[in-house]
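=== RUN LOG ===
request id: a7f3
mode: sequence -> structure
chains: 1
length: 197
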Amino acid sequence: MNEVIKTIFERRAVRKYKDQPLSRDLIEQLLDAGRMAPSAINHQPWKFYVLTKKEDIVLFSKEILKEGLKTIPEMHLKDVGKAIISGIMHLAHGIDFIRSKDPVFHNAPVVIFITGPKDNEWAALDIGMCSQNIMLAARSMGLDTCPIGFGKFVEKTKDYPKLKIPSNEQVHLAISVGHGDQHPDLHHRKKDNVVYL
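=== RESULT ===
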Protein backbone atom coordinates (compact mmCIF):
# COMPACT_ATOMS: atom_id res chain seq x y z
CA MET A 1 0.00 0.00 0.00
CA ASN A 2 1.29 3.48 -0.76
CA GLU A 3 1.31 6.03 2.06
CA VAL A 4 -1.85 7.88 0.96
CA ILE A 5 -3.94 4.71 0.76
CA LYS A 6 -2.44 3.47 4.04
CA THR A 7 -3.50 6.74 5.73
CA ILE A 8 -7.03 6.44 4.30
CA PHE A 9 -7.35 2.90 5.65
CA GLU A 10 -5.95 3.84 9.07
CA ARG A 11 -8.17 6.88 9.74
CA ARG A 12 -10.82 6.32 12.41
CA ALA A 13 -13.34 8.46 14.25
CA VAL A 14 -11.69 8.82 17.66
CA ARG A 15 -13.75 9.77 20.72
CA LYS A 16 -11.13 9.86 23.44
CA TYR A 17 -8.12 12.19 23.49
CA LYS A 18 -5.01 12.68 25.59
CA ASP A 19 -4.66 15.95 27.47
CA GLN A 20 -1.97 17.22 25.13
CA PRO A 21 -2.20 20.59 23.33
CA LEU A 22 -1.42 21.12 19.64
CA SER A 23 0.81 23.92 18.39
CA ARG A 24 -0.58 26.72 16.23
CA ASP A 25 1.82 25.61 13.48
CA LEU A 26 0.39 22.10 13.50
CA ILE A 27 -3.18 23.42 13.34
CA GLU A 28 -2.23 25.66 10.40
CA GLN A 29 -0.77 22.67 8.54
CA LEU A 30 -4.11 20.87 8.93
CA LEU A 31 -6.04 23.91 7.73
CA ASP A 32 -3.70 24.25 4.74
CA ALA A 33 -4.50 20.64 3.83
CA GLY A 34 -8.20 21.53 4.02
CA ARG A 35 -7.65 24.56 1.80
CA MET A 36 -6.24 22.28 -0.90
CA ALA A 37 -9.63 20.60 -1.40
CA PRO A 38 -11.47 21.11 -4.68
CA SER A 39 -14.53 23.37 -4.66
CA ALA A 40 -17.23 24.38 -7.13
CA ILE A 41 -15.95 27.15 -9.42
CA ASN A 42 -12.99 27.38 -7.01
CA HIS A 43 -15.07 29.44 -4.57
CA GLN A 44 -13.37 27.84 -1.55
CA PRO A 45 -16.44 28.61 0.61
CA TRP A 46 -15.07 27.25 3.88
CA LYS A 47 -14.14 29.31 6.91
CA PHE A 48 -12.57 27.88 10.04
CA TYR A 49 -13.38 28.85 13.62
CA VAL A 50 -10.85 27.16 15.89
CA LEU A 51 -11.30 26.56 19.62
CA THR A 52 -8.23 25.70 21.69
CA LYS A 53 -9.23 26.89 25.18
CA LYS A 54 -10.37 23.90 27.19
CA GLU A 55 -13.03 25.85 29.10
CA ASP A 56 -14.60 27.08 25.84
CA ILE A 57 -14.59 23.60 24.32
CA VAL A 58 -16.27 22.11 27.42
CA LEU A 59 -18.81 24.96 27.52
CA PHE A 60 -19.84 24.50 23.90
CA SER A 61 -19.80 20.71 24.23
CA LYS A 62 -22.38 20.77 27.02
CA GLU A 63 -24.53 23.40 25.33
CA ILE A 64 -24.47 21.57 21.98
CA LEU A 65 -25.57 18.32 23.62
CA LYS A 66 -28.42 20.12 25.41
CA GLU A 67 -29.63 21.81 22.20
CA GLY A 68 -29.22 18.66 20.13
CA LEU A 69 -31.30 16.59 22.54
CA LYS A 70 -34.10 19.19 22.33
CA THR A 71 -34.60 18.27 18.66
CA ILE A 72 -35.55 14.65 19.45
CA PRO A 73 -39.28 15.44 20.06
CA GLU A 74 -39.39 17.25 16.69
CA MET A 75 -38.04 14.24 14.79
CA HIS A 76 -40.16 11.69 12.96
CA LEU A 77 -40.44 8.33 14.72
CA LYS A 78 -37.91 6.71 12.38
CA ASP A 79 -35.40 9.50 13.04
CA VAL A 80 -35.88 9.17 16.81
CA GLY A 81 -35.02 5.48 16.49
CA LYS A 82 -31.84 6.39 14.61
CA ALA A 83 -30.93 8.95 17.28
CA ILE A 84 -31.39 6.36 20.02
CA ILE A 85 -29.30 3.83 18.10
CA SER A 86 -26.65 6.51 17.62
CA GLY A 87 -26.64 7.12 21.38
CA ILE A 88 -26.26 3.39 22.01
CA MET A 89 -23.37 3.35 19.55
CA HIS A 90 -21.68 6.08 21.58
CA LEU A 91 -22.13 3.98 24.70
CA ALA A 92 -20.72 0.99 22.81
CA HIS A 93 -17.58 3.07 22.25
CA GLY A 94 -17.26 3.25 26.02
CA ILE A 95 -18.51 6.83 26.32
CA ASP A 96 -21.20 7.91 28.73
CA PHE A 97 -22.08 11.10 26.90
CA ILE A 98 -24.68 12.16 29.48
CA ARG A 99 -22.21 12.11 32.43
CA SER A 100 -19.10 13.12 30.49
CA LYS A 101 -17.50 16.48 31.25
CA ASP A 102 -17.03 16.96 27.49
CA PRO A 103 -19.82 14.87 25.89
CA VAL A 104 -19.46 16.09 22.30
CA PHE A 105 -15.74 16.76 21.74
CA HIS A 106 -14.36 14.05 24.09
CA ASN A 107 -11.53 16.08 25.65
CA ALA A 108 -10.01 17.04 22.29
CA PRO A 109 -7.56 19.95 22.61
CA VAL A 110 -8.72 21.47 19.32
CA VAL A 111 -12.17 21.85 17.78
CA ILE A 112 -12.62 23.27 14.29
CA PHE A 113 -16.05 24.58 13.29
CA ILE A 114 -16.32 24.81 9.50
CA THR A 115 -18.83 27.22 8.01
CA GLY A 116 -19.97 28.16 4.54
CA PRO A 117 -22.13 30.92 3.07
CA LYS A 118 -25.85 30.31 3.47
CA ASP A 119 -26.43 31.24 -0.18
CA ASN A 120 -23.92 28.74 -1.63
CA GLU A 121 -25.77 25.56 -2.63
CA TRP A 122 -22.49 23.65 -3.18
CA ALA A 123 -20.84 24.62 0.10
CA ALA A 124 -21.81 21.40 1.92
CA LEU A 125 -20.11 19.23 -0.72
CA ASP A 126 -17.04 21.44 -0.81
CA ILE A 127 -16.78 21.43 3.00
CA GLY A 128 -17.09 17.64 3.01
CA MET A 129 -14.02 17.38 0.79
CA CYS A 130 -12.17 20.02 2.81
CA SER A 131 -12.96 18.16 6.05
CA GLN A 132 -11.72 14.85 4.70
CA ASN A 133 -8.43 16.51 3.70
CA ILE A 134 -8.04 17.81 7.26
CA MET A 135 -8.78 14.42 8.80
CA LEU A 136 -6.44 12.52 6.49
CA ALA A 137 -3.67 15.08 6.99
CA ALA A 138 -4.11 14.71 10.76
CA ARG A 139 -3.85 10.90 10.58
CA SER A 140 -0.70 11.18 8.42
CA MET A 141 0.84 13.34 11.18
CA GLY A 142 0.01 10.87 13.96
CA LEU A 143 -3.09 12.78 15.12
CA ASP A 144 -6.69 11.64 15.37
CA THR A 145 -9.99 13.31 14.56
CA CYS A 146 -13.73 12.87 14.70
CA PRO A 147 -16.21 14.59 12.35
CA ILE A 148 -19.11 15.85 14.46
CA GLY A 149 -22.34 16.62 12.63
CA PHE A 150 -23.89 17.40 16.03
CA GLY A 151 -21.59 20.43 16.00
CA LYS A 152 -24.08 22.32 13.85
CA PHE A 153 -26.28 22.73 16.95
CA VAL A 154 -23.73 25.26 18.19
CA GLU A 155 -25.84 27.83 16.30
CA LYS A 156 -28.67 27.31 18.82
CA THR A 157 -26.52 27.73 21.93
CA LYS A 158 -26.67 30.86 24.06
CA ASP A 159 -22.91 31.33 23.75
CA TYR A 160 -22.86 31.07 19.94
CA PRO A 161 -22.03 34.80 19.55
CA LYS A 162 -18.63 34.07 21.18
CA LEU A 163 -17.60 32.34 17.94
CA LYS A 164 -18.11 35.61 16.01
CA ILE A 165 -19.59 33.81 13.02
CA PRO A 166 -21.39 36.29 10.71
CA SER A 167 -25.12 35.85 10.15
CA ASN A 168 -24.63 35.05 6.44
CA GLU A 169 -22.66 31.87 7.31
CA GLN A 170 -23.85 28.54 8.66
CA VAL A 171 -21.99 25.82 10.52
CA HIS A 172 -21.79 22.60 8.50
CA LEU A 173 -19.50 20.49 10.64
CA ALA A 174 -17.18 20.42 13.62
CA ILE A 175 -14.00 18.34 13.77
CA SER A 176 -12.28 17.35 16.99
CA VAL A 177 -8.49 16.99 16.68
CA GLY A 178 -5.82 15.70 19.02
CA HIS A 179 -3.65 12.81 20.11
CA GLY A 180 -6.04 9.88 20.32
CA ASP A 181 -6.28 7.80 23.47
CA GLN A 182 -8.06 4.86 21.85
CA HIS A 183 -7.68 2.68 18.76
CA PRO A 184 -11.16 1.91 17.35
CA ASP A 185 -11.56 -1.20 15.24
CA LEU A 186 -12.40 -0.90 11.58
CA HIS A 187 -16.15 -1.15 10.98
CA HIS A 188 -17.40 -3.42 8.20
CA ARG A 189 -17.38 -1.74 4.80
CA LYS A 190 -20.08 -2.59 2.25
CA LYS A 191 -18.82 -4.10 -1.00
CA ASP A 192 -22.14 -4.60 -2.78
CA ASN A 193 -22.57 -0.94 -3.70
CA VAL A 194 -20.93 -0.82 -7.15
CA VAL A 195 -22.65 -1.01 -10.52
CA TYR A 196 -20.35 -1.37 -13.52
CA LEU A 197 -21.94 -0.14 -16.75
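=== NOTES ===
The chain has a mean pLDDT of 90.
The CA atoms of residues 128 and 173 lie 8 Å apart.
=== END ===
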